[in-house]
Amino acid sequence: MDFQQSKTKENLARSFAAECQEGARYQFMAKLAQQEGYQYMSNLIRGIAKNEMAHAEQFFNKINELGGANVHNIDVKAGYPFQSGTLAEILQLEANNEKNSGENIYPGFANIARDEGFKDVADLFDMIAKVEKTHQRTLEQLHKSLKGNCLYKCKTGEHAFKCEECGTIILGKCAPKTCPLCCLPQGNYRIDFSIN
Ligand SMILES: [Fe+2]
Ligand SMILES: [Fe+2]
Q1: Same domain (yes/no): 27, 53
Q2: 161 has a pLDDT exceeding 90
Q3: Rounded to a whole number, what is the largest CA-CA distance in the chain?
Q4: What pLDDT, in 10s, does the model give residues 78-136?
């Protein structure tokens, strides 16, 4: 099928737009986490924002590779989320968005690309869908731990809590409220999902 006439071209453009917006929303979220004292969480979220921009770049490059000089402008009509809330609320909202991308939208786009004969695009959608599922899990775990007030509590006994700022390791059931060495708040300690 001719790329210019394909549904895949439109899906790539929609996905590019979605990834750019996700990258922006995760940067907003990272800023909020930082403002609330969760520096380590903020860094994790910035890592996700970086992933989304890498996805956007792949979609952008694919459009140019397949469309060549014929692509100047693509009109996209699609719905995009504009939700806001507390840090815990947006962690859950974005987890749901990731679930939808990873389980429905990208696998669907992959099937269409395969039907239209764009195997490499189908593979790209499938690979990115897998990453979105990992984002979903990270955001769900952060949401659950933040809401349950157990980001820095070990339910199963003692844990080695590490300050990512100065490297101090504290053995105990909880990370200290402030680091005894660098005096920065608890939010600078590494979050380990295996403990709760
Ligand atoms: Fe993405
Ligand atoms: Fe994602």
Answers
A1: yes
A2: yes
A3: 64
A4: 999 998 999 999 999 999 999 999 999 999 999 999 999 999 999 999 999 999 999 99
What is the percent of the chain with per-residue pLDDT over 90, rounded to a whole number? 92
Domain count, the chain: 2
What's the gap in Å between 23 CA and the centre of ligand 2?
A: 8
Query: What's the 91 CA to ligand 2 centre distance in angstroms?
Result: 12
The token duo for 18 is 């979605």
- Residue 124 is encoded by which pair of tokens? 């790209």
Å from CA of 129 to ligand 1 middle: 8
Tokens representing 74 are 């693509």
Block residue for tokens 């590019």 = 16
Q: Does a structural domain hold residue 152?
A: no
Cα of 141 from ligand 2 centre, angstroms: 15
Q: How far away, in angstroms, is 52 Cα from ligand 1 center?
A: 4
Ligand nearest to the CA of 106: 1
| CATH number, domain with residue 132 | 1.20.1260.10
Angle at 149 between CA 164 and CA 194, to 5 degrees: 55
Mean pLDDT computed over every residue of the chain: 96
Q: What's the CA-to-centroid distance between 135 and ligand 2, angstroms?
A: 5
CA 79 to chain centre: 19
Give the structural domain span for 46. Answer: 3-147
